[in-house]
Amino acid sequence: TLILFPIVLKLAQLTAAAIALRPFGFSGFTNPLASWGIWPQFLVWLVVAEFGFYWFHRYSHEIPALWAFHRVHHGAKRVYFANAGRFHPIDLWLVMTVYFFPLYLFALPAEVMVLFLAANVITGLLEHANVDFAAGPFNYVFNTAELHRWHHSTVLTEANQNYGKVLCVWDLVFGSWSHRPDGEMGEVGLTAGEPAIPPTIRGQWGVPFRSVADKGAFE
């Protein structure tokens, strides 16, 4: 379920977008890279898509209305592969809509879409993997577990960094990339003073709609 849910949701998003735009006769803009091979298209569009994801993810940490949903993902007390599927459905829907928007806007080939789905699922599991390893130069290309673990720190200055999904290119560009191979990481989870996240799915889905003011991450 943790692996299939994000895939099904992404496919549902793309299908819903296609159905919604069909009555207007919209079948996508011309893909400017259509003459390129599948892999070059995938790599270029991945960088483009990561730009939208980066800013939406960053705003999800800075804007209280978005953080109310995104904090469900950060409520876990440890970083391990299951975190890849721990999201509030509205948070996941919004961020993936932004992420995949360039793909269905330019009606990319199905092969490119498959590569995007595969890259998202595989890297989502790897970036949350509870495995102690050094990624070396890959830390300057991908959002590795070595980088992403700091994003789940209870220390706000450590958590507000490394926002990329598959890549870390926009973190490098906008100054939010952080690599601390020798750093001693403390606890994982929400910052001090924030209400805990319930352990049940029903409880987690209701978190954003509580009357509790979730301001701990912004003070």
Q: What does the model show?
A:
By secondary structure, this protein is mainly α. It has 9 helices and no strands. The chain has helices at residues 4-21, 38-62, 64-74, 89-105, 110-127, 145-148, 156-159, 169-174, 201-206. Helix 2 packs across helix 3 (64-74), helix 2 runs antiparallel to helix 4 and helix 2 (38-62) packs across helix 5 (110-127). The protein is globular and about 50 Å long. The chain starts with a helix and ends in a 13-residue tail after the last helix.
Gyration radius (Cα, Å) is 18 Å
How can the largest sheet be summarized? none
State which percent range the strand residues make up: under 5%
C-alpha termini separation: 36 Å
Given the helix and strand composition, which structural class is it? Answer: mainly alpha
Helix content estimate: 40-55%
Tally the beta strands: 0
Round the mean pLDDT to the nearest integer and report it. 82
What's the overall geometry?
globular
Which regions have little confidence, pLDDT < 50, spanning 5+ residues?
211-219
Order of H and E elements: HHHHHHHHH
- The number of helical segments is 9
